[in-house]
Specification:
mainly alpha, 68% helix, Abscisic stress ripening, ABA_WDS
């Protein structure tokens, strides 16, 4: 299953406005989403550990806690995958910026 997230901003010009793409803004956008994915992965992982602990402490409802733990673990993996995807998109935006001559290094 391949999922691709495309924006009009990945092209040289926006279709509606014919303005050049702001690659720095694009890079910041993906960096922000990458951090949200990381945060989601950490939060879901922490919740999975919490449910694992509850399963041990509450044997009467252990099955319920184990299911919640497994769901939270799957969410953590998914959020980690999303963060990785956004990291790739951020690198892609940086590469596009460089390819379009937007970086000017002044050495002197």
């Amino acid at each position: 299953m391949a999922y691709h997230h495309h924006h009009d901003r990945h092209h040289h010009h926006n279709k509606d406005e014919e303005k050049p793409v702001d690659y720095k803004k694009e890079e910041k956008h993906h960096k922000h989403r990458e951090h949200l994915g990381e945060l989601g992965a950490v939060a879901a992982g922490a919740y999975a550990l919490h449910e694992k602990h509850k399963a041990k402490k509450d044997p009467e409802h252990a099955h319920k806690h184990k299911i919640k733990e497994e769901i939270a673990a799957a969410v953590a993996v998914g959020a980690g995958g999303y963060a990785f995807h956004e990291h790739h998109k951020k690198k892609e935006a940086k590469k596009e910026e460089k390819a379009h001559g937007k970086k000017h290094h002044h050495l002197f």
